[in-house]
Amino acid sequence: MAENETIQSQDEEVAVLSHVDEYLKIGQEYDCSDIHLATNAMPTWRRYGTLQPIWENAKVLTAEDTEKLAMSFLGEREKARLADKGDVDFAYQNSFGRFRASVVVQRLGYYICFRIINTKVRTMDELGLPETIKPLTQYQNGIVLVTGSVGSGKSKRWLRLLITLTKKELIISLHLRIQLNIFLNLRIVMLIRGKFTLILNLSQQR
Predict the structure, then answer these.
(1) Nearest to 116 by CA among 9, 8, 27, 20
(2) Residues 6 or more apart whose Cβ sits within 8 Å of residue 196
(3) Measured between alpha carbons, how far is 45 from 6 in angstroms, rounded to an integer?
(4) Which of 33, 156, 162, 196 is placed for a possible disulfide with 151 were both Cys, Cβ 3.0 to 4.6 Å?
(5) 147 CB contacts (<8 Å, ≥6 apart)?
(6) Is the pLDDT of residue 63 over 70?
(7) How far apart are CA 88 and CA 44, in angstroms?
């Protein structure tokens, strides 16, 4: 599927799916970074940095739909936090992946957002990084800033640069946000143990 395309359906109207996992599975299959399920809107994904409906002919989600979807995956602790504060952010894991989840109670109904955490670390070539980037992994000193809009692939790119650092004795200080998969953090340590001193500064966010 090309960029900025939606899923084509033969149905006149795509019905609301019964569980958030069904939307997350679709998001994974189509290489999306985010899934948005909001009241009075069609199910939406962020794919290659662009927000758009998953299906052009999807049913608009009602307040009842989003409430049902939220309750389908929230645990008791998350439900209590949501009832008390009106919002909850947490790591959600199912049988096929790990996700950063955010649920907010708004005036019109529930708003649910997922960040899909990719556990596959792609090569520089797969990420489309230019040849001029590769020498950065050979320097002993300096700082590399990876910037971009939400969902543009910042984490994937700096992670690949880090794993490529295999020849120098370095101290690396990483300021990781909570959306990074713990599996990846452990994998980094395993890959570079003995070659680097790695300092992980894990700063949680709401």
Answers:
(1) 27
(2) 165, 169, 170, 171, 172
(3) 9
(4) 33
(5) 154
(6) yes
(7) 20
